[in-house]
Structures are given as C-alpha cells and as structure tokens.
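ok trying again, last paste got cut off:
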Amino acid sequence: MSLSPSQIAAARRAARDLVAAVDLLRRDAGPAGDTVDMRRLLADAQRISEDLDLLAGPEGPTGPSHPPIVVPDHAYPPEFFRDADHD
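nice, full thing came through this time. structure:
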C-alpha cells in the first residue's frame, strides 16, 4: 500500500482534531464527562494517532523549537573571566 505524505498528514490532522473535540466534549459535560464511556471514547480517539504511527511510521520532528546555541571553540581573552570569582 502506497500512502502519500499529504494523505498521512491529513489523517494526522483529523486524528488530532478528533482528540481535541472529544476532550472538549468531556470537559463541557461536567461530572457526566467522567464516565467510563467518555474515558473510553477519548482513549479510542487517541488510539487512532497511535495506529497511524504503526501504519506510516512515527511523525518526524518538526525541527527544534529554538535555534541551537553555538559555543565558540576559541580561546577567551583574560578580561572575559575578570569577575568570575565574585559569584
């Protein structure tokens, strides 16, 4: 079976939307949202994302949330450490 990346991405978006909708339904239901049936529905919705990972492989990282910190590899001038012992 050949699945295109756009098909998988659309399915992942739909699965996330379903989990969000069921979670909202559970929260809006108040005390009735803490029933076995509601917890099962939420677990089933979450399992769809897990099944997509099994079918198409885990979703790759979208990249770092912040740029990496680059530490220079050269010698520092002595002034850099002048007040270092005053912590």
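cool. Residues 9 and 62 are 12 Å apart (CA to CA). The chain has a mean pLDDT of 85.
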